[in-house]
Amino acid sequence: MSKGAIVDEVTCIGCGLCVQLCPKVFAMQDDGKSKVINPTGDEEGNIQGAIDACPVQAITWTEEKTA
Ligand code: SF4
Predict the structure, then answer these.
(1) pTM higher than 0.70 for the full model?
(2) Ligand 1 binding residues, C-beta < 6 A
(3) Are 41 and 9 in contact (CB under 8 A)?
């Protein structure tokens, strides 16, 4: 896997969806924002699901997948 997830903690509203969908990748911090604990900790499809589910588009890939 050549890319990983990052969370923009300023944009994150702490809805918790990404933590529910990918608990191996995201964790909720004490300040109520999501944090990446393991950028490549789940299948890309599952991480993409969290990216798609985030209501404020706070999650992005760190780099494009290489062919
Ligand atoms: S889904 Fe988006 S807004 Fe919700 S906790 Fe995760 S990063 Fe934050």
Answers:
(1) yes
(2) 7, 12-18, 34, 53-56, 58-59
(3) no
